[in-house]
Specification:
alpha/beta; 406 residues; seven-stranded mixed β-sheet; 17 strands
Length: 406
């Protein structure tokens, strides 16, 4: 099959981490894949990837623009708690570079790449799907495929057109500004008032303050020569730009050069169904696989893309479209409990500054820090020390009820 042909085994719509991973896995197994991506789109993202992702997906370390060795949690009172990483590190990537590397890898594995904007999905009488997209020239092109994977983001048009009746997931809207990272000389240019914090190129700072986000959080994430300063919120009318401006002012970085700005919806709950039982499957943000509370999405997108590719491959090999449903089953089996725990955490602890203050206080606890990092780095709830979970549960309860000192 040549690239000029208009029929493929699989068309993957969207070339972010989920779509590029799915295309790479399928192409590596000899499947005729078209990877369709809208050029020039960079998702607003802190860019953090856990240590396990680097190994599971064979990511070269030269793609990392920074290595993070601790996180700082900042309460409404400006009280801060440092959470050092005892072993390993959190890698930071620039999405523009990282996503393109993933797309190039898929292409080297045999996937065909085309730039274009998805327009429509139609079902043919022969059981194939027809994907229409607009090229940069403005011309509309139609290709057909046995299977379509929608990896086109939180407001997925593939999901909307290909999964009728599936309710869209709630979203947090994220906005960040990429700035030139400060050097030592920038400390002399801070505001007259002492800043809340001093920038550290090896630490992620997370602000749990209602004035910066009424229902989520704000962040300062180092990216080597640049840094991401951003905020998320689901509250309509809340000024994300105003919040980022306030944060930059508070930490003395108002005058730092702004490289670019980006905004997008971030899903907070997996869709109830990911496939149409025939020839359409969604993965990544389109499937709603962003972790509640943390908003982490890169690892889950790539894991979901891999599971989606496995499900599509099985369906192609067996001719049984029921195999598509295995993608969601596998993902929820592996990560559903973590999502449930994080959802509860977000519900309880993000509901007002008094709770946020207690939440940051809890982060001082060694059990909390250890379990948090082990769960994050290995992407599963830690089971080797069940009593630690019991201790954390009762500590959480005492803080939630206001029985613990803050």
């Amino acid at each position: 099959m040549t690239e000029s042909a208009q029929h493929f085994d699989v068309v993957v719509v969207g070339g972010g981490p989920a779509g590029a991973t799915a295309a790479n896995d399928l192409a590596s197994r000899g499947v005729n894949v078209l990877l369709l991506d809208k050029a020039g789109r960079i998702k607003p993202c802190g860019g953090a990837i856990p240590f396990c992702l680097i190994h599971e997906f064979n990511i070269p370390t030269d793609l990392l623009c920074a290595r993070i060795h601790s996180a700082r949690m900042i309460a409404p009172s400006n009280k801060s708690v440092d959470m050092p990483i005892e072993s390993g590190f959190v890698g930071m990537v620039n999405r523009e570079t990282f996503d393109e590397w993933l797309r190039v890898r898929a292409q080297k594995s045999g996937a065909y790449r085309r730039e274009g904007t998805f327009v429509a999905l139609e079902q043919g009488s022969d059981g194939t799907a027809r994907v229409m997209y607009k090229e940069k020239s403005g011309e509309t092109t139609t290709v057909s495929a046995k299977m379509v994977i929608g990896a086109d983001g939180a407001r997925s048009q593939v999901a909307k057109q290909g999964l009728p009746g599936v309710k869209q997931t709630p979203c947090v809207f994220a906005y960040h500004e990429i700035i030139q990272a400060p050097g030592d000389e920038d400390e002399d240019h801070a505001n007259d008032n002492e800043p809340i914090d001093v920038y550290d190129p090896q630490r992620c700072d997370v602000y749990y303050q209602g004035k910066l986000s009424p229902d989520f959080y704000a962040w300062v994430f180092p990216h080597g020569k640049t840094a991401s300063i951003g905020v998320g919120s689901a509250q309509k009318g809340f000024s994300l730009r105003g919040s980022v401006s306030e944060l930059r002012s508070a930490i003395g970085l108002s005058n730092a050069e702004t490289v670019r700005t980006e905004g997008a919806p971030i899903p907070m709950k997996p869709l109830k169904r990911w496939d149409n039982g025939s020839n359409v499957l969604v993965v990544g943000d389109a499937a709603g696989v962003v972790a509640p509370a943390s908003g982490e999405g890169i690892y889950y997108a790539m894991a979901c893309g891999r599971m989606g590719a496995a499900a599509v491959y099985e369906a192609l090999q067996t001719g049984d479209a029921k195999a598509l449903a295995s993608a969601r089953r596998t993902f929820m089996k592996d990560h559903g409990k973590v999502f449930w725990v994080l959802g509860i955490l977000q519900f309880f602890w993000y509901g007002g500054d008094r709770r946020r203050e207690r939440f940051v206080k809890i982060c001082e606890d060694e059990d909390v820090q250890r379990l948090t990092w082990e769960s994050y780095m290995h992407k599963k709830l830690v089971r080797k020390d069940p009593m630690a979970h019991v201790r954390v549960f009762f500590k959480d309860l005492s803080h939630l009820m206001g029985l613990a000192r803050t």
